[in-house]
Amino acid sequence: MLPLYKEKQISPSVVCTLLQNSRKAKTIVLVFVLLWLLLGVWLLYTSYLSKGSFRLEDLHPFKRGREGSDQEQHEESEIHPILARALHMKDDGHGLEVGANVAHRYTEGQGGSTPWSLSPRTELCKGQDFALLALVETSPHRFQQRAVIRRTWGQSNAGKSEEENVKWQVVFVMGSAPDVMTEERLVDESLQYNDILQGKFEDHREEDNLKVTLGFKWVNSTYSNGSCVPSFVLKTDDNVLVNMKVLAPWARDAHEISQHLFMGHVLRGGRPSRDQSEPRYISEAKYPRDDFPNFAQGPAYMFSLDVVIRMVKAFRAFEHMTPFPFEDVYLGLLAEYLRVVPIHDDRFVVMKKPKNTCLYRRMTFIYDVSPQEMLSLYHIIESDDVDCREI
């Protein structure tokens, strides 16, 4: 058989040209493959950096301008990757301005000595004492509830006249979020509103006492030697409407009971349920006593600042009991240990929602309300000229 180039009448010079062109094509393909590989490596590298694999001190806007201690540098290198990304933010649609104080705030919260990963800045009260600090228990995903509270009773503003001059502050207390997306939203929310206190524990409803102890520890850390202090600390939930038109003036004027106070809807002579079908069941191994101390039933109760600080100091004696399923009983045990007697006040009693709207103006707490209900009821409370009606 004759060679191919003889069968097709192709000259040897043409065959050589074809072979040379083939080698060039292979070279071009190889170059493209190498370029794609380099692009992939670059994308992986930038993705790796965006997940926080850098030190806070390398972020130019927040460099300290001096060499810190080895311990400080170690703490900065362990900053949460989500927080590191948050520190990069300039303007992502929220109108946020991130400065050196935010960097300090988050490095302070990320240190191993504090039990929180997000916390409000300490200059909440701007050097002036205020009547009431409200610790509101919430969960990471309940963004709408927190937004409505900020628009309604959680607004930290003065009274409607110069004579009233009533001030209060709201801080939302929660555990860690179950997913990265929610955690990122919480960082944005904290940067914008400066009212998030997040613990380094998973957020579970049955472990709400961890939120109370977290809130109390933060209060002790922030206000025990601060330039401004609240007269009282209120603990409540994010589904409770607090009528500040009633509570805040009372807290401002209650000087005679501004110490040694633990107030709420006090239950006496209670006993633990050993029936596993009951919602408040507790095993004998978890709680061997056959009776409960006198305690203020949740979800709302109030303390003077000195009692909160004393309870924080007593936490160590009760570490073997945490987490404890009933936060109100747990606080009753702490009060019993400290010989603080809970005071009953009818304003904290859980009542059915009245049908007459004017009755809401006299209530201090309205329990178990949805965000929509909170908005409408707040309007009723604040609008004195609204006629009473049945709902």
UniProtKB/TrEMBL annotation:
The chain crosses the membrane at residues 27-45. Pfam families: Galactosyl_T. Its main location: Golgi. Its EC number is 2.4.1.-. The keyword Transferase applies. InterPro entries: Glyco_trans_31. Keywords: Glycosyltransferase, Golgi apparatus, Membrane, Signal-anchor, Transferase, Transmembrane, Transmembrane helix. Signal peptide: none annotated. It is a single-pass type II membrane protein. Belongs to the glycosyltransferase 31 family. This is Hexosyltransferase. The lineage of its organism: Eukaryota, Metazoa, Chordata, Cephalochordata, Leptocardii.
